[in-house]
Amino acid sequence: MRAGPGLREELRRTAERALPNEACGLVGLREGELVHFIPCRNAAGSPRRYAIAPEEVLAALKEFDHLDLELGAIFHSHPASPAYPSPTDVAEAVPGVLQIILGAPPDWTLRSFWIDDARVREEPIEAG
């Protein structure tokens, strides 16, 4: 999977603005490249959990459709833990949708994972 120009930086800035809580959002995909990030409000308002309100998901999907994009990934940050899916992340993962996690500052390590049937498989993201 490739990341479009500036995507990593945009995710990091979004995570920094959300501190001390987790940040979250959706990323649009075109021809194998993650190209458009839509930040969403963390409805859980928590440093250990995130939730995207259904109306924000619907609005993002409509924007992706308008831009001729697919839902490529769900993004969230871990402000106090590594960039690896927590048990909650695994339990709540959407099958078939890449999960991007940005780990704790100051390193802000970015990793992504396919999570299906409680199986976690890392998917490297290359710079676009």
Task: Explain what you see.
With 128 residues, this protein is an alpha/beta fold. It has one domain (2-127): Cytidine Deaminase, domain 2, CATH 3.40.140. Helices cover 24% and strands 34% of the residues. The protein is built from 3 helices and 8 strands; from the N terminus they run E-H-E-E-H-E-H-E-E-E-E. It has an 8-stranded mixed β-sheet. Strand 2 (24-30) and strand 3 (33-40) form a beta hairpin. The longest helix is centred in the middle third of the chain and has 13 residues, at 54-66. The mean pLDDT is 95.
Layout: helices, strands, pairs:
Elements: E1 2-3, H1 7-18, E2 24-30, E3 33-40, H2 54-66, E4 70-77, H3 87-92, E5 98-102, E6 110-116, E7 119-122, E8 126-127
Parallel strand pairs: 1-3, 1-8, 4-5
Antiparallel strand pairs: 2-3, 2-4, 5-6, 6-7
Short description:
The chain is α/β, with parallel strands linked by helices and 128 residues long. Helix content is 24%, strand content 34%. The chain is built from three helices and eight strands.
Unreliable parts: none
Class derived from helix and strand content: alpha/beta
Strand arrangement across the biggest beta sheet: 7-6-5-4-2-3-1-8
The separation of the N and C termini measures 9 Å
Total helical segments:
3
Largest sheet: 8 strands, mixed
Any idea of the CATH topology?
Answer: Cytidine Deaminase, domain 2
Outline type: globular
**Class, according to the CATH hierarchy?**
Alpha Beta
Tell me the Rg in angstroms: 13 Å
